[in-house]
Amino acid sequence: MVPQLDSKCPSGPIEDRWRKHKFALPLVNPANRRKYNVIVVGSGLAGASAAASLGEMGYNVQCFCIQDSPRRAHSIAAQGGINAAKNYPNDGDSVYRLFYDTVKGGDFRARESNVYRLAEVSNNIIDQCVAQGVPFAREYGGLLDNRSFGGAQVERTFYARGQTGQQLLLGAYGSLMRQVSTGRVQMFSRREMVELVIVEGQARGIVVRDVVTGEYERYAGDAVLLCTGGYGNVFYLSTNAKASNASAAWRCHKKGAYFANPCFTQIHPTCIPVSGDYQSKLTLMSESLRNDGRVWVTKKVGDTRRPSDIPEAERDYYLERRYPGFGNLVPRDVASRAAKIECDGGHGVGATGQAVCLDFRDAIARDGRNVIEAKYGNLFQMYEMITGEDPYQVPMRIYPAVHYTMGGLWVDYNLESTVPGLFVLGEANFSDHGANRLGASALMQGLADGYFVIPATITAQIAGRKREPITTEHAAFAEAEAAARARNQKILDVRGSKSSEHIHRELGKIMWDKVGMGRNAQGLAEAQKEISALREEFWSDVRVPGTADHMNPGLEHAARLADFLELAEFFAMDALHREESCGGHFREEYQTPEGEALRRDDEFAYVAAWEFQGVGKPATLHKEDLSFEYVKLATRSYK
Amino acid sequence: MSAHGSSDSINLTLHVWRQSGPEDKGGFEVRRLNGVSTHMSFLEMLDVMNEQLVAEGREPVAFDHDCREGICGMCSLVINGQVHGPIPEITTCQLHMRHFKDGDSIYIEPFRAGAFPVLRDLVVDRSAFDRIIAAGGYVSVATGNPQDANALPIPKRNADLAMDAAACIGCGGCVAACPNAAAMLFTSAKVSQMALLPQGQPERDRRVLAMVQQMDAEGFGNCTNEFECMAACPKGIDVSNIARMNREYLRASMCSAEGA
């Protein structure tokens, strides 16, 4: 009998749940809030919005980030937009419809209560951001402009050119810096969290390493908020920033926080293809391009002609052919898998054959170059800068790339992990996107968690539990610091022959080939063995020059890689256990005769939350069964 | 790896700044790098160089980078004397090796300014920018229940100009390019964004006074209309923002209660 997890989701009519739940939570007297210390790790949309909001309420906040400034967190790179159910365009949108679309888009692997709350606060987020001076796109009448995004049938996406993430983050960063100026938030940049400190069963602090001086520092608090993003860089190549890593979350997992659905990874369909072995990251092209671009491959197998030389009759517009209803606008998981199928079948274009065309020829003929330039000018420029090709003249070449991880640390409705006092926000948690995230939903979730959820739910820890006052002199801190120091020293002491970059690339190849867009039992079992062997290679043959007592970027990378090497095997294990295809998880054994994903709701309509049992050892499965009271379980169809 | 550069592979001589810490004097280290693919980005070329250093058992060159797609503002190199390299309106991470020729010598230095001390090799401390923002680069609105977003119409032209200014990525290239190491372009971009928007009006005067005061306190220089900042800016932030900030500053100093 697999133990069940309690999500603490309220019951009753879904539209009343969040209000009722907030009312039932304890409150902390405004005059008392300054007596409580809240540690926020990460300064992206979730972390900055949480730290700012808690500071405004009067809590004593300490916020940490690995970059030189909180403004540089990877949320800044989000291009497309943020959803909200404002229904300004009067096209039939509502909180309920945004909720419905998100549950369905997540392929029925998210919690209804959480998703409804997300849709409910979405409008408040837009109001808050506008009040901060976020310069969203506007119409001539001075009101906000909306667009349709990622296949949504309504126009609910707010945007700021192609830099929506940047503008939202700078809004939250401004609010954060205002709290820094009042002294309610202390900001610590260039700090990497290396350990969670647990005292008497509660998360009471962290140990960080100052990456400039190499010194280890201890911070104690009444609650710890982990806002550290996703783990896409386990694939080495992804659209994530280079410093994005899983270490903080993974080290919390090793200390008792359950990790949920690690195999749910989003592969984004519109990225610039890999061009060589030296490639260090992949660049996303906003999927808004699919509103006007047509996706095609060659009909002939192994056609190596330049795409512009391939005549119309020899092009296969496979998305329009297979999905006449949604065409080029099918959701991300469907578009990505279709591209892989075509390229695996030898229909890909370009020298590597690992690319499909995204062609604007017809759109330019229909609307004129000026219209296309006004909509996508900056994206076309970016493409030309990276590839040296002019997309006004020749079709763009695109290929899917790892973009977002829906899995993450398990949290209840309060965003609290299985370690009391440890809350997890934004991409770092697993909660709202199920098996697939819809476009323009990540920014919404990060800000919902930070601005509106955690300020209410943190009281479950602050006022809801008793704690003894502690200082960083407590033995648990000394122990955590010693463990962190020893781990880094162990890496330096290997003095082998292979760079950590080299090993990370090898890990990426295993992950992409066997734990990527198409997975099967044999490949996953092989991947687990190969990752385990690679981990041994790391610990016996990695070479990290230098010491730990100064800025040593090689050591930072190697330490993060050591965690990825553990997470990767665990990831493959989860993918092997989930014998169904859903959202971003496609098991080749489970598909319909037409090659579509075959979900198995009778057996797998649950969240798989894993309890750590040791490196390379099987984790213990805990289930949270998902029930769908409002959105009826149904097969997604985009035909 | 070929000894001779071909059309998509070039050989380079790199002169890289190395400095062990803020107190160290620092200096250039010369390295040959052969067989560099012209499809690489500049930072990927540095990755290759660092791999070679690790193979030699030496510590890699420290440089700041993160998103590698031109938006986080982390990368910060002076390449052959030019901030973010020879191509206009891009960051260092967006520069590709196809813009260099076989046999080129490339000088790679950190951003240099008194207010941006070097921490190690090519990494500098730009925390002064955070303190300038903390002095007033925001609207003082707490999280809560503000009015409906569309209750405040904003003329599209003003919204667009505010967005132009808000596009600043805070990389500090403007400071590094300025002969006076002034932070006027950076500071004025935030002052302009807020001055152009109705949300920014209540704090308009105190914002500009506080931000300029902090900018001066950090040791940045003054503007003498060289326009090097605009030429170096990867986001094309216009110097008209500096003119607007000067106007805002004068107005706040002379005509407001805040300036009295």
Report what the structure shows.
The complex is a heterodimer of chains A (639) and B (260). In chain A, helix 14 packs parallel to helix 16. Chain A has a domain at 267-403: Flavocytochrome C3, Chain A, domain 1 (Alpha-Beta Complex). The two termini of chain A are 40 Å apart. In chain A, the strands form five sheets. In chain A, strands 5-2-1-9-17 form a five-stranded parallel beta sheet. Chain A is of the alpha+beta class and 639 residues long. Chain A has helices spanning 17-24, 45-57, 95-105, 112-131, 164-182, 247-254, 318-322, 332-344, 361-367, 369-387, 442-457, 459-462, 475-494, 500-514, 521-541, 553-577, 601-604, and strands at 37-41, 60-64, 82-83, 157-158, 185-188, 191-199, 202-210, 216-220, 223-226, 259-260, 265-271, 294-298, 315-316, 356-359, 396-405, 408-409, 422-424, 606-611, 620-625. Chain B folds into two domains: 9-120, Ubiquitin-like (UB roll); 127-255, Orthogonal Bundle (Fumarate Reductase Iron-sulfur Protein, Chain B, domain 2), CATH 1.10.1060.10. Chain B has helices spanning 42-55, 127-134, 156-166, 173-177, 184-196, 204-217, 228-232, 240-255; strands at 9-18, 27-37, 77-79, 82-83, 105-110, 118-120, 123-124. In chain B, the strands form two sheets. Chain B has a five-stranded mixed beta sheet with strand order 2-1-5-3-4. In chain B, helix 2 (127-134) runs antiparallel to helix 6 (204-217), helix 5 (184-196) packs antiparallel against helix 6 (204-217) and helix 5 packs across helix 8. The longest helix of chain B has 16 residues, at 240-255. Chain B is elongated. Chain B starts with 8 loop residues before the first strand and ends in a 5-residue tail after the last helix. At the A-B interface, helix 2, helix 4, helix 5, helix 10 and helix 11 of A face helix 1, helix 2 and helix 3 of B.
